[in-house]
Amino acid sequence: MASPDDLRASVRKAIASAMQRSNREIPHYYVIRTIDVHAMMSWLRRTNAERPIQHRLLSAAVMLKAIAVAVRRVPELNATWDGALRPISAINIGVVISLRGGGLSVPAIVGTDTLTIDEIMVALNDIIPRARAMRLRSSEFGTATIAVTSLGESGADEVLGLIYPPHVAIIGIGGIIERPVAAGGTVVVHPTVRVSVGGDHRATDGLVADRFLCILDELLQHPEAL
Amino acid sequence: MTHDEIMATAIMALKRIAPDSDPASLAPDTDYRRALDLDSFDTLRFLTQISTDLGIDIPEADYGQVVTLGGLVEYADRQRRHNDAGRQKMPGVMPGDKRCRA
Question: Which chain A residues in 33-62 lie under 8 Å from chain B, judged by CB atoms?
């Protein structure tokens, strides 16, 4: 049985090797969009007010569902690159989870687009504690088709990730931060989030990422329909 | 349940989520989320555990009152007194305390 220090060292080595390869082989581009999440946060507040604490949702579950649905409509981002773009039909979002004491783990939620927000929340409640306890099964890695990294609800403005080979994109979710938003000729203060797409420029162009972010923005304005 | 017992329950729950930390050393007015590096998932897990252990409800709108151990103890104490008062007024209507049967 490996000691926690050994495990941590092997996690660090795995990250080093994947990120080194990513930075060496993949010409990254980044596209960022600030999305007004007033509708999403209001919906969450209303939904959670009616639920016992065991069944409450976090914004990450809603974001993951919306991202998965948007990815379905922009399949170029859910693919691998081997000299040609190879789209993958299953959408398995790899959730980047920070480990206590350093290091990351990226288990996949298989078929994220086919799950309800509640089911995604259940999946997160299952994998996050197990990831942090280093108790994931090996089958839970390596099935991801696109990664999502998030700074949490009160983190920095934005995060620009490095693509996990052999993926062709990584989505970065910044902190949920109140910003002035112009709407209908006036300025209001709403919770907003900066979402980034890091794309493989061999496989796609920035326009594809822009289309994805536009669809994601639209989806997040109607969280009840997700 | 005394304040000390509520505090001990909270510390045990925090220790389970952040095993590498020493929650017992936290000052009562310290934000334990920052001090122990808890994200929103850890925090929700902790509050879910505490709700079950103490038999109280913590509505989302009240989360801001329970981000320190001192705040949590006071909040839990208030909720439990409120529950007790409700129970005395309506005997048999409130669900029984499951831990009594253990």
Answer: 45, 48-49, 52-54, 56, 58-60
Given a contact cutoff of 8 angstroms between Cβ atoms, the answer to whether A158 and A196 are in contact is yes
Q: Which residues of B touch A48 (CB under 8 A)?
A: 60
Burial letters B15-52, b for 16+ CB under 10 A, else e: eebbeebebeebeeebebbebbebbbbbbbbbbbbbbe
Could you read off the pLDDT of A28-69 as tens digits, one per residue?
999 999 999 999 999 999 999 999 999 999 999 999 999 999
Partner A contacted by B65 (CB < 8 A): no
Round to whole Å and give the CA distance between B12 and B19.
10
Name beta bridge partners: A94. A108, A147
How many Cβ pairs within 8 Å bridge chains A and B?
A: 38
Residue A218's SS3 state is: helix
Q: Is-contact A133 A127, C-beta < 8 A?
A: no
Give the integer Cα–Cα distance in Å for A23 and A87.
Answer: 22
Q: What is the pTM of this model?
A: 0.90
> Which DSSP category does A24 fall into?
H
CA distances from A226 to A116, A118, A164, B101 (A): 8, 11, 27, 42
- Token pair for residue A43? 């919906």
- Out of A49, A54, A60, the one facing B59 most closely (by C-beta) is A49
Owner of token pair 């990250």:
A15
ipTM: 0.85
The token duo for A195 is: 């979402």
